[in-house]
């Protein structure tokens, strides 16, 4: 790799440093082997090992000692002792694994540090990305007696060798490489011991996995020197002292660490110090770690020890986002966070910051800034004390009550329930005592105020031990029935909303729960702390991302995103897709509705796309990229889409098979919009089941276009019913085809001539008998009748068919059309009779609510009647109600054709969006 090196570097390096001593210390240090072996479960005396160790160092390890980097000095004694200055002159920077993932990135970090204007700096560095995982894996392999650990360690060796060779030269390079070599030799010896024992103590493991930081710190320190800035590195095991806690964490010992730091600094008075993240020592001088992702914590402790002005955590994102940007693409950067908010966010899973990071800096009021190493132009997120924020950001609560959302996956809920718990003091403490005995970590607790149940979440991997401990602890109570159960609900996730303004704003939980309900997500448990910095809910694991997106968009974007699946891209479906294409941008910009067509399925092919099909090219895409149609797969794709909180299926077919799935789809939480009449006019019990489900759930089923295409008929009827009006009768011309035929039947042409004309113009179904039979009108009648509450089946509707009885059996359309003129006489006669009475013939549907019946028939209307005034294929529907008694409420307009039907479907989709929260 060709790196352009600043000229200053060439001479820089170790020589340019302060008084430096040749080290007798190595990356393992004096203490290491002896103390490490002390923790081995073996009978060899530690003193013996220590002697062996020392001998080894004198002989075999000699070169290793000599090869130690020149900037490493022993902590024991030094010629001149310097006093550690503490305070504002220090700034702490922490670089995460991704920041130092390659030689280019390390070089970039070195440049950032070289250019940082702070007077004095501490640079805490993580291991190169993935290296800690690789090291843990080595230990794992060795423990399992899998000798591939040998090749695996060679890979780690190679990675660092290559990186150092890219970045360093001359002495620095040679020294690092021989240090690396001897570290690898030691690790091999250590891993061999683990391999033989088939077991690694915690110290062994911590010793091994800490090497990633030891190496990255040395490479980075040398790279900074190469940028011309004098710099030394610190093995933080010589400085940081921590004590393990029962909950698999560590507590820093500030007094001991402070003392050690002063001692260290007295011999290493550098203005720029590169310190290893992640690693530390116990008070017994055993190597330990701050646990996974602990380098952030290291940096915060360093900030506190140096009393630094600021701690900057450099990572690969622009700051703290309102939600994990990998899960919510619309997440936004938060400019400021209070310590508490940052703590809550990180505790509940925002891994941009290790949760324990906050404590040391908060104590000393040191701000933390999260910044992106790959985007220096972004100012990042500043985390600091509340009161400063309150003064500056008083507007903040208005804009975003909830600051952010985070999730923790892989948790299980434990529910301890029973009437015997109420009013019995000490039950909760007995429960949590049992949980503590198995060292499980309780993430959240929720107790019903009736005290009948205590419910809490623990990591999934700890739940079986917890359940067992509880069964044991409460054996007697369970047997006596005082406790009814200790129940475990597996595969859950915690979803937390965080924000300190929540405390002063009513309705936050309601909005949160509502957003989850609208996304059809069931909440298993709820907790809200008294601090009201967070509201936590437990949901099923599979709902976690969907829930996160639903609540995020509800609070942050007020944008309603809908995944749309279209079934049947024929005449109506295709027109709808074109309308959606033309209107999408306006909807998004002006109405905050983001419609994404994530699937289109026809009878033969389908296309699927998680983020939305390009509607400019949907026809071509279907032709070129379509896969064989598979309705089940199509539904799975729509339902499994975690990117969008809401899904709607638009059934543009006339298929009675498709509608059989509606119930299941609604149950899964997918909304349905359709112009297909088959569901609402099908068997009554199925219809009632569907409507019942719709009423009980937050899932919507809209079917305006089943009657009168785009005309507001169903919605008008609903409006009347919901406002307490009483429907007496609905009467109307519901068929565009029959409307056209009778509007044209004025005596100039015969009935059969008009039918032929209508057929040729494409107004009829391919077989005109489908229109003339009256069944289509009967379906509309029954839809409206059922909407009014009548419990009728399709066969209860009396239908006067206009297909002459003898022609019902015609085997072909041609035969029917050919024979139809034979029956012209009869209908012409009816028309003439009516005409002579000043009347016209109209083919109508009637819902007679009072008589509890529906009819479809040819009726006569006075020429003055609104039904006689129609043009073309218009529909007209008259509602006679208690309110509209003298003059019926009339809805009239074009009620057939692809454009208006698709328009009706489209408006149902928008109605759905507004139900889901889009602004009106
Ligand atoms: P590092 O190696 O630098 O410590 P981490 O992987 O530990 O980086 O943390 C940074 C990552 O945290 C980001 O890449 C981002 O994907 C993830 N993350 C999760 N939640 C959030 C959030 N709310 N804001 C920012 N990043 C987040
Ligand atoms: N390298 C350690 C880890 O991967 C610590 C850190 O990066 O924060 O867990
Ligand atoms: Mg991290």
TrEMBL record:
Identification of the protein by name: ACT domain-containing protein
Needed co-factor(s): a metal cation
Native organism: Araucaria cunninghamii
Entries under Gene3D superfamilies matching the protein: Acetylglutamate kinase-like, Aspartokinase, catalytic domain, Dihydrodipicolinate Reductase, domain 2, NAD(P)-binding Rossmann-like Domain, VC0802-like
Subcellular compartments: Plastid, Chloroplast
GO CC term (a single one): chloroplast
Residue ranges annotated for the ACT domain, each copy included: 416-488, 497-574
Keywords: Amino-acid biosynthesis, ATP-binding, Chloroplast, Kinase, Lysine biosynthesis, Metal-binding, Methionine biosynthesis, Multifunctional enzyme, NAD, NADP, Nucleotide-binding, Oxidoreductase, Plastid, Repeat, Sodium, Threonine biosynthesis, Transferase, Transit peptide
CDD domains assigned to the protein according to its UniProt record, in alphabetical order: AAK_AK-HSDH, ACT_AKi-HSDH-ThrA-like_1, ACT_AKi-HSDH-ThrA_2
NCBIfam families: asp_kinases, PRK09436.1, PRK09466.1
Catalytic activity entry: L-homoserine + NADP(+) = L-aspartate 4-semialdehyde + NADPH + H(+); L-aspartate + ATP = 4-phospho-L-aspartate + ADP
GO MF: aspartate kinase activity; ATP binding; homoserine dehydrogenase activity; metal ion binding; NADP binding
SUPFAM superfamilies associated with the record: ACT-like (SSF55021), Carbamate kinase-like (SSF53633), Glyceraldehyde-3-phosphate dehydrogenase-like, C-terminal domain (SSF55347), NAD(P)-binding Rossmann-fold domains (SSF51735)
Pathway(s) served: Amino-acid biosynthesis; L-methionine biosynthesis via de novo pathway; L-homoserine from L-aspartate: step 3/3; Amino-acid biosynthesis; L-threonine biosynthesis; L-threonine from L-aspartate: step 3/5; Amino-acid biosynthesis; L-threonine biosynthesis; L-threonine from L-aspartate: step 1/5; Amino-acid biosynthesis; L-methionine biosynthesis via de novo pathway; L-homoserine from L-aspartate: step 1/3
One GO term of the biological process aspect: lysine biosynthetic process via diaminopimelate
Family (UniProt): In the C-terminal section; belongs to the homoserine dehydrogenase family. In the N-terminal section; belongs to the aspartokinase family.
Transferase keyword on record: yes
InterPro entries: AceGlu_kinase-like_sf, ACT-like_dom_sf, ACT_Aspartokinase, ACT_dom, AK-HSDH_N, Asp/Glu/Uridylate_kinase, Asp/hSer_DH_NAD-bd, Asp_kinase
Function per UniProt: Bifunctional aspartate kinase and homoserine dehydrogenase that catalyzes the first and the third steps toward the synthesis of lysine, methionine and threonine from aspartate.
